[in-house]
Amino acid sequence: MTCCDQKCALIAGAVVGALVAVLGGILIPVGNMVIENTVNKETVLENGTLAFDTWTSADVVVYRQFWLFDVQNPDEVVSQGAKPVLVQKGPYTYKTRFIPKTNITFNGNFTASFVLPAGAIFEPSMSVGREEDVVTSLNLAVAGVYSLLDHNLANWFIQQSNSTLFQNRTVKDLLWGYKDPMLKSMIGVFYPYNGTSDGPYTVFTGKDDIKKVATIERWQGEASLSYWKDPYCDMINGTDGSSFHPFLNKKEPLFFFSPDICRSISAEYDSTVDLKGIDVYRYMLPAKALASPVDNPDNQCFCTDPSLTKNCTVAGLLDLTACKGSPVFLSLPHFLFGSSDLVEAVVGLSPNFDEHSIFLDVEPITGFTLRFAKRLQLNMLYGPSDSIVILNNIKENTIFPLLWVNETASLDDETAEMFKKELISQIELLEGIQIGLLVAGSIIFAGCMIGLIVVCTKKSKNGLIK
What we know:
The protein is α+β, with helices and mostly antiparallel strands and 466 residues long. The chain has ten helices and 19 strands.
């Protein structure tokens, strides 16, 4: 091959390499556009999309695990005003959310409505005992009349029924309901539950704006709540937590609304973790979410009774009386992020961030929540009273923890493999082609240019020798 032929071949090779590299570079924005369009199409809530199939099914098993606080010294509390000594018993596990959404109705293209049925099935294999296990807990009816009625009237009801401050109840009765001798009606921490439903919800489909997909427009026909008597606290903001818009930004918090806590709340990006080979963003509920108004002024409107929260300075507590119709206080388990007074009022609590915090693991491309743990504690109040005889020796108000619940779900191995095959592997293949073309073209171009320089150098030397 002559020198001219070598130069022509190397120049041609350099041109081809450059073209291949340029093609790889061009495919990056084009490929990203293809990925974005595909994901946006599949995350809209309409018949035939991946999001709709996931949204309407009940294939992902949701469990509720309950830990109940068993009082070890009930007599000493009543007779001497001693601190309650508590032992945590659990988990008692129930399968929930196994009934698909009902009454799904599309209101044109942009919103859809549905009702979410409720049910609970006991899972003995995931529980420490039977539903018939007995625990000693605060008497729900006594705590209720203490907070809601005139104390003279409350004392009359208590004495007429021979009710006590603490009662022995089975796990099943305490959770799902029993007929109370004082109120002459059914009562329970979650009564009624089975056979009830949540909603109706109306959510945006994302058809007109993918950023709004699954965002709640209305709950029970209303665009806002009425519990808190404040526009900010009464906002219904975000989704139900099961999914969010695609292509998440770590800097932006995720907002979701939960009827269990009677408010909207937000979670913040914490870290990226591996879930069955899928990278997910872990969002955590920050301490400021239930901070006192002193530390988080946004929570001022959630403080509805300053006399119970030391003039709104108590952290980690949410009074749900206006919402639930009974004096129930919400917190994180073991009063995590709560004021020290709450923890020290009883014996036996030990807040632990890893065990008691709330998190959501969300796949950032699709916005699907693939794993979550919603951990909440329900509490009631009792305190001293000159008029209520069984409370004569009580020394101070006590926010008593009844139980805490961990509602959790995670995608199974089969779904994880499908998700990786249908989405992750396709994206990785396209990215591999893009990078491969860019790298290969760059190498070919660089190699040919180096060869051309060598050929030209040799030619110059030969010319000088002649």
